[in-house]
Amino acid sequence: MLVEVSIVASKFLQYTTKPVERHVGYLFSYKHNRKKLKTEADILIGIKDTLKESIARDEANGKVIRPDTMKLLKRMEDIIGQYEQDTGQYEQANRDANTKCLLRCCPNPAVHYQLSKKSKKLLKLLMKLLMELYKEDLTNISFPVPVPHMSKASTGDNKAFESRSAILQEIINELANPETLRIGVHGTQGIGKTTFAQEIYRRAKNEEEKDRLFDDVAMVLNLNENPDTQIIQKEIAEMLGLAFSENHDSRLRAQCLTNRIKGHKVLIILDGILNEIDLENLGISSMPTCKVLLTSTSREVLSTIMGIEKDFKLTALTEDESWQLFERTVGDRVVADRSIQSEAKRVAKTCGGFPGLIVKLGRIMKNRTTLPAWRDALKHMETFDHITPIDSWTAIEYRVKILEWSYVDYEIHSPAQVGLIMENESGLLQPFLDSKVELPNITRLVIRNCRSTFLLIPSVARALVQLKRLEIHDCDIMEEIVETQEVGNEITGKMFSKLNYLKIIDLPRLRRFCLGSNIEFPSLEELQIKGCKEMENFIHDPSSENVTGYKVNEVSTSKNLQIAEQCFLFDEKVRIPKVKKLFLHGFDKLTRIWRSQLVARNSFGSVKELEVRGCPRLTEIFPPRDNFLVNLTLMNVERCHCLKTIFPSSVARYDLKLLEKMFVKNCAEMEEIVSNENETKAVQQLVFPKLVLLWFKDAPKLKGFYQGRHTKLIWPALRDFRIVGCPQLTDDICQTTFNRVPTKAFSHRGWT
After folding, report:
1. Inter-residue contact 644 to 676 (CB < 8 Å)
2. C-alpha angle with apex 365: 364 to 370, nearest 5 degrees?
3. Does the pTM exceed 0.70?
């Protein structure tokens, strides 16, 4: 009996003492509880702030924050909110006199008991959350936005076409078949497989939720261009909202894709298969919930190599379907005109039922509202029947691109761009070789980095009737611009009638513009030829007397050369009557610009700005004649180390009345600016009424402007006269010759 009483007493004390201790502990440990709560809360606040910064950064980078991360942040903010509320109550209790007892000198035990108990409870919640956070990977809080493929916006190429709609529905039905995991679509190049695949993607993505076959859909286009495994994996992952680590190889990426797809219904579309692609290495094979749709030009690749279970063939659109698509692309405003409609139907028919070419041709013709424009287009599309392409699509595409050329300003950056330029087996450019090519509307043509010995043939050059701007850059092996097999006025004389700007830059092997007996640019206003080291003549006539190759032997006016091979850029065969700006840079072989008296008087009479640079063998710029460049306002000569003088006295007397600025720089042999031409009659005066700027730099042998005796130099408008690096032009000579002492230094930036 005594033992039972003892046990009962022990149990009583156990159940009564511990609660008492706990409650008493709240009263006496409230400061300790508050201190510990503050420490842990500060840690949680730091984690929360860091997480919010990471979320803001990822959102700014267009990533999607994981839902579980947002839930975790919400829990942290709730607990921190409770802590801040509890802290406010604690501080208020310490300030409030009503919470104190014993003449307001001691804390009120009842209030502090309640606050301590609440803090203890909050501390437990906070510690539990911190333990969870320590186990969480707070670096993986987001994923890339699933890439919305361009196919979401349907091109409309497959809409309302019975031939395509039936196949499309069959494929959708087959995708719903649980027994079919791999489906193939095949057809010839350009038949519309990519657009068809995009339509399947759009249908699968945009189905109503209750009818949706797949949770996710991903598509990779044009695998024939990007067959790399890691590139394919990356594109699929982006569309599934999966991010790979930078150090993941293809094997780890495949495992990540497999894990992402497992348990989800996923459709993967791979477009443009040319050869085998190992789906298992990609990470999308052997899963009953993952279906794969492949497109290819080869049925054999799909069935034999890729092991598809069901295949579908795409054929060309019917004539009616072609017209529907073309009409939709061009617009009712154009085809509503009955006079145009019949021509438009014939134009649409030339596309052979290839949807992409129909759309492209329709866009080209969209704003053509006149019957002649449509007849011209039909003429273009019905040419080149003699071409033997790889397939009909290639030939039709070739025609469409030629038509496109005829309506736009074009710029070519490589030999094979846009298909109008074809390459032969040696890799050399063969542009515009067909005499049937017509480009009546093109106004601007820029050629860059083309590997060809020539650019145009005469018939095509004559077809460029509206061409106003021609630029040719960096063509390493080009030897002439217009290749001429024959020589005659009818070959070269009638080309480029509207060309007003011609720029030829860095053609190191260029020898001439063309062969022929004459060439005229009646509208050309600016001519730039730079970096053509081998160029010796602008036009070359092999039948001309006294001409051997490019060079002519004659008595030179240079004091250095009595009999020498002379290379002239321009002679009587070249007429450019309206040219205002003439820039000639980098001719290694050129000895003269113009061939003495043989240049017609009205050939270059409009030149206002003449710039000659980097011609190391040049001995003469102007022929000794008057009334030649009477409109010249700017003259710039640089790095012409054989040049001893610039103007003959006849030119200086009669042609320089409008000259305003003159620069001479780095001419090692320059002795005087105006030569006396061995004249017997003294020149009384040289007048430059509008010359305002005269700069000489680095001409160590320059002795004066004109060394003729008793000649007065008059320049009433001269304001800026500068000399640097011309030791023989002393102040006395300058004072005597120029009637002033020059400025001895100037900024290099001021030298143009």
Report:
1. no
2. 145
3. no
